[in-house]
Design goal:
By secondary structure, this protein is an alpha+beta fold. The protein has helices at about 25-35, 40-45; strands spanning about 5, 20, 55-60, 65, 80-85. About 15% of the residues lie in helices and about 20% in strands. It has a five-stranded mixed β-sheet, covered by helices on one side. The protein starts with a strand and ends in an 11-residue tail after the last strand.
């Protein structure tokens, strides 16, 4: 089964589970299964249209799904899906 790696910032919504095996043929089905297992993750991964939120980066093995078939990207039986939320923040250096 493919494995989804849950990033540390989102583990508080998955009971601190770091990896989940899913029965899915593509990324969309994998994320749907993940959010069915951990409903609190849904608001962090899925937008209002039911698609993967645009600020979430997903890689299958080492390939960005934006360069493949996006949500419909197939996953192999032993594939690894990495969820990488966008990180924002920091402060601008003060003007001198």
């Amino acid at each position: 089964m493919p494995t989804i790696v849950i990033p540390t910032p989102l583990r508080k919504f998955s009971n601190q589970v770091a990896k989940v095996n899913v029965k899915a043929a593509n990324v969309s089905d994998a994320v749907l299964e993940l959010t069915a297992t951990f409903p609190d993750l849904e608001k962090h991964l899925i937008d209002t249209t039911g698609k993967i939120a645009p600020f979430i980066n997903i890689f299958v093995d080492d390939k960005d799904i934006r360069n493949l078939d996006r949500e419909k990207t197939n996953v192999k039986e032993n594939g690894i899906i990495f969820i990488i939320p966008a990180i924002a923040g920091g402060i601008r250096a003060p003007k001198k």
